[in-house]
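Re: beginner question about structure tokens

> Can someone show what the tokenized structure looks like for a real chain? I only ever see the sequence side.

Sure, here's an example I had lying around. Input first:
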Amino acid sequence: MIALSPPPFHFHPLKSSTIPMKSLRSDPPEYSAGGRTRTHALLRPHHRTNPFIWFAAFLCVILILLLIASVVLILIIFLIIKPRNPSFDTTAATLNAIYLDSAAYLNADLTFLVNFSNPNTKIDVVFEYSSIELYFLKRLIAAQLIQPFVQRSGEAKLLGLHMISSQVYLPPEIAAELVRQVRTNRVWFTVRGTFRVRASFGVGHFSYWLYGRCQIELTSPPSGVLLARSCRTKR
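And the corresponding structure tokens:
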């Protein structure tokens, strides 16, 4: 028996495939109508920042830092000095006369002492504007301005005021209530003060508005005396 040998196997060398260089290149750039490439058109041209802009930014930073330093300094001063509001009070009052003319027009004569006190130990205050108003049942019946004055730290100041009401019209219900209070020997008034205060400490100062209010009770004239009072002062 004769064995058949397989046919001889021949190796054929593979031919190296060359990739055209054109296929490795990216797509050609697209041009816009003006002749510039689209990629170049999307990029903004680079410009140098104007030195004036840098200088303005530097000044803004300096001003912000100065502002922050000023706020911190003022806060520290406030914490050390601990400023307090001056107080307004009515220490004495006399109702000299009060009557109604034609049952509708008020005539009244009232004198009282107001006390201004500065509780601060390191701050002087100046009352640049002071207005005192007298009310009966929320009806303004007299007003007076006070000349500006200075109050040193820890100082108290008494001022005498003479309030006169002349022919002040009162609605019927308010006039009836006034007659009733005079008959019962208990007459109530409201004293309101509006003040523009400037506080000074060293080389610094600040101004603010201050409001005082007192409820006072007096006996009937001709020698009406102060029976009770309730005062408060706030900003």
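Each token stands for a local structural state, so reading them left to right follows the chain. The chain has a mean pLDDT of 84.
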